[in-house]
Predict the structure.
Amino acid sequence: MMRILFLYLLPLSTTTGFGFSPRNSLVRLSSLASTATATATTTATSTSTSSPIAIIGGGPAGLCTAIALAQQGKKVILFDKQPTPLDPNDSEIWGDTAKFYLIGLGARGQKALDQFGVWEGQNGVKSYCQEVIGRKDWSPQGGEEGVERIFTDRPYKTMVLPREKLVGVLYKHITTNFSEDQIELKFGVDAAVDLEQEQEQEQESTILCNGEKFNASFVVASDGAARDVAKSISSSRKSAMRVVKYKDDNKRIYKTLPIKFPKESWRGDINYSSRTADGRVNFDALPANSNNEYCGILLLKEDDPLSGPDTSPFELRELLDKSLPQFSPLVDDATVAAVAKKDVSNLPSFRYVKNSLSWRNIVVLGDAAHCVKPYFGLGANSALEDVTFLSAIMENNRLSPNEMASEFSRQRAGEAKALVQISRELDRPGALGFFSFVLPLILDGLFHNVMPRIIMPNVIAMLQRTDYDFRGVRRRKRQDR
Ligand SMILES: Cc1cc2nc3c(=O)[nH]c(=O)nc-3n(C[C@H](O)[C@H](O)[C@H](O)COP(=O)(O)OP(=O)(O)OC[C@H]3O[C@@H](n4cnc5c(N)ncnc54)[C@H](O)[C@@H]3O)c2cc1C
């Protein structure tokens, strides 16, 4: 049974997150965001005289939204509490390959960035990415050699870069191509929407930031997993908007681990991964540069003795030797000591904003609206996809700000919910995981192989396809079953 399971699971592996991946995914880049028709111009031609659009949160989604709206001639002001983004060209910053985690951009993310003209070209995001063309996986049942698979059936390749570098590239694009009159950037500041202000139906919003007030004709809350804007709208009970939190009953923490693979015997363009039979360790490494230097993510259970700062380097070495013998000799003692010493990071947990993604002229998008663990590589990809929908809606000048906000919610609230619910079903602990994740994957695989026109590939493969939205994936799999 375990052998069948292994043989089935192996080709599922993904290169867009650190979990499993699509197979046979015929991604058609003509997507469901057919309404998202904004063209990629690098500079805006006109600037409106009304109050700017405020964006709270300058992660990938917020910065991409700023670019998209400025291209429509709208004036934008963006606030982020982090310091000014890092220079993507500064090799000293990126020399430490385990300082920043890597994200894989699949079809959804690439398509969105391309739509706004920031994907291709000399300074495009793509030029800062490493290409991943396959995967080598060691699973408990797979033997010591591991199994390598080069993907030959995909119309796109996963492109990998640190989240911080993506932010740096988008920031650089803005400062190079737009004036401050078009996009005003305020980094290092905490911003909030003044919900106490009594609002008339179509009144502007007020943004509070460092004791100052800014009027905004429209507000985009792309404040990530903090989702302060959604939380305050939800707790003020001013709207039906509510944040759904799931208890994390399969909690993992992670530490990043730099690893350099010798070029003679290890490819530099595939995703290496391994997991142990006892479930203690899960390791996943993606290329950080073209020198075969990788950033590995060592996932451990929350209560593991090594899940903390200042742990024993000897115990960590012991664990690597025992659980990851193929990688351990490639990690020197100084690196093991540094990894044992460093603090752990938490994975995001499953959350979504339900009932409505809007209130008056405010919308919530990206991780602020739907947060998933990164196993399936959908967080940044779906956040960027949100931007294509908002951009298409906001191109329609006949709609008022409040109508635009409601329309965005109408198009995306169901998607936020479906993405989080589907992803969570794939992350259940113990026996639940077998019935909600492993078994359906096995059955999908078997039936899809026999009747490929009738039974679609497994749900993980389907989630990567841009010709299906997340609700469509769920409907289709229910239909299959
Ligand atoms: C280890 C790991 C691996 C991942 N791998 C992948 C992957 O392979 N593929 C993928 O698609 N996704 C991946 N993700 C997820 C991805 O990083 C997120 O989904 C993505 O960054 C979400 O973008 P965002 O702009 O919505 O939010 P964020 O990136 O979280 O940005 C939100 C911004 O809002 C700012 N902010 C918050 N509150 C305020 C405030 N009050 N005022 C001002 N600013 C504020 C924050 O400073 C932050 O810059 C991974 C995540 C992790 C942790």
